[in-house]
Amino acid sequence: MSEETAYYSKDFEWEELREEIEKDFSLRHHFLPFDSSPSSSPSEDSEAWKSFHNRHSTGRFFKERRYLLKEFPELHCCDEYSKVLEVGCGNGSTVLPILRGKESIIVYACDCSTEALERAKEMIDASGGVSLKQRFHPFSCDFSRNGFPKWLACDSCQKSSPQMQHDSFPDVIENKGTGLNDLSSLAEDQCCIGGVDFVTLIFTLSAVQFHNMPTAIAECMSVLKPGGLLLFRDYGLYDMTMLRFEPNKRVGFREYIRADGTRSYFFCLKTVRDLFVGAGFTELELEYCCIKSVNRRSGKNMRRVWVHGKFQKPI
């Protein structure tokens, strides 16, 4: 990581935080054993997120993630017409800086909530410029439940040579009157777009039930081209939001459910490593980002912990 990024991601040491938290008797419920049997079905989880995005339809709940290109400069320095699959795009807070950071990059963005996709499309439209709208392709998909649509990368493309060139598949898929739910109406002579160069999982995997994570990650692997990168950022163990959960909100080991029915898992480095390396990825970067900020209203210090990772599909 660059020096600028590293400076803002090491406000405190994670090991010191861990020692402090684990000595706090009032927080002991977070460390007790737990039967991690499924507490809800994937369809119930999807419905909870759809309701969440309906309630936050103005998009103000999420801020544009301007830090993204500092954390993942590969998105700015990539080849012309590189393709990104943003998984769990929400209202577009991750998509927008990616599109702005590289004039030729193409982003396919999915979410289980059509309401969220509509907000993302409105955000991109309002950002100005025909180029951004032409390079943004939203579609509805619950990747942990149903997998990705076939047109992202068919079986033959998933097995194809790593020497596959960018010009062997279309740069832009036209979605003529099909709406957000169907980008599969490709030209008859095109089976798929041939895979993507990047997959971004930004605060998405934590919303998937833990026992479904290996399948979800395998889906991401399947649509990446050989040598492609998966860029990961999500909640880390002992993040302040984890410590706020009451005992009755635990639904698994390091897995919690909010009052609105949405869930969140908090990752340690070993779990992330086991999940992605176990799926066949090569680990390039993996570390805690420890950020200290101040709540302007209360004046309280907040210690945020996220996990940053980069993983590559082997060539």
Automatic annotation (TrEMBL):
* Entries under Pfam families matching the protein: Methyltransf_23
Q: Per its record, what are the GO molecular function terms?
A: RNA methyltransferase activity; S-adenosylmethionine-dependent methyltransferase activity
InterPro entries named in the record: METTL2/6/8-like, SAM-dependent_MTases_sf
| Gene3D superfamilies reported for this sequence | Vaccinia Virus protein VP39 (3.40.50.150)
- GO BP annotation list: methylation
| Classification via PANTHER family | METHYLTRANSFERASE-RELATED, TRNA N(3)-METHYLCYTIDINE METHYLTRANSFERASE
> Family assignment?
Belongs to the methyltransferase superfamily. METL family.
Name this polypeptide is given: tRNA N(3)-methylcytidine methyltransferase
Source lineage: Eukaryota, Viridiplantae, Streptophyta, Embryophyta, Tracheophyta
